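User: Sequence in, structure out. Go.
Assistant: Echoing your sequence, followed by the structure tokens.
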Amino acid sequence: MGQRFVDMKRKHEIILINIYGNDKPGLTSSLTEILAQYNVNILDIGQAVIHNNLDLGILFEVPAQSESAPILKDLLFKSYELDIKIKFTPISETAYAQWVGRQGKERYIITLVGPIITAKHIAEVTRVVYHQQLNIDKITRISGRIKLTERPQETKACIEFLVRGKPLDAASMKSSFMTIAHGLGVDIAFQTDNIYRRTRRLVCFDMDSTLIQTEVIDQLAHRAGVGDAVSKITEAAMRGEIDFAESFKQRVALLKGLDEKVMIQIAENLPLTEGAERLFRTLKKYGFKTAILSGGFTYFGRHVQNKLGIDYVFANQLEIKDGKLTGNYLGDIIDGAKKAELLRNIAFKEDIDLAQTVAVGDGSNDLPMLNIAGLGIAFHAKPLVKKNAQHAISTTGLDAILFLMGFRERDIE
């Protein structure tokens, strides 16, 4: 009949090409146009440009009715014309099958954040990855470019590692990352790479020593002349040594007789934490719901809410009579358990899955909400809190939270 039949038993011819050289407009287009002429199947492709130097890799399958020789010849001539280097590597079907088989393994994101990132930081992180038998698929800088004239305290650098596999010992890996972070002055987060990480919708914050750089109750106590007594109770509660509810009652009782005018003066001068305004501008732009869940006081929470445009505020209500504090409070105490309950309630009201929530705090009474949120972050927290939280930020401002949420510098307001 004169028909040609394709040999179905013909082996698949798979080739990896690597292109190196100075980046220039139209380079990728010129090379892929050649591949298009031969109707090749693209199996994988990746490109990176570092300081104007291109590294492009393309894995392709030669069609059954074609041969690779003319394809490679045309690519070689085009690379000479473009003044770039090209390398060809044949890939066996067995090697390709093994590579495909690894695609089903778990994927994780390691986020390295600090004022500046050095080779030492990357070497230590990748050493842990290697010992846990994880494979690094991709490394990306997600912070902006840093000028040589900028000082470390003015910068924020972030690198993201996409890794694949299953850690041999997740607890040991977390401990290693904590040791590195503490010793080298950086923050390291390890998260599962899934759809929830990319679809966060609710972010809840503690207020005192998180959104603001002070403990309001200590300021009130100082003005009431009971600063030392309240500070000792506050510190013990933050360390988890005293039940929060009981410590709260003791501290509020010591404020009896304080004039309401003092609250106004303190509220008008609350120091916002570094990065807070940038963080909330960005969250608001992208439609996130935000909340304050505080063991502090509603009066001050409302002031912070107005400054930052926060959606919800839940805190404790001080009782005031005749313009003075009575030493009592109204309603339920917002303790750790209540914060977790409120986070759940807000998520339910907004029809948001818990895996899509973020919680940020610094004290032991924040741990319940940090541990039920999809992303829980101990922010400049006490050692006990950092040890028991999912993640920690200790070296930069609040806006670094955006990096852990997957934002790039160019996305941030």
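User: And one key feature?
Assistant: Residues 1-8 have pLDDT under 50 and may be disordered.
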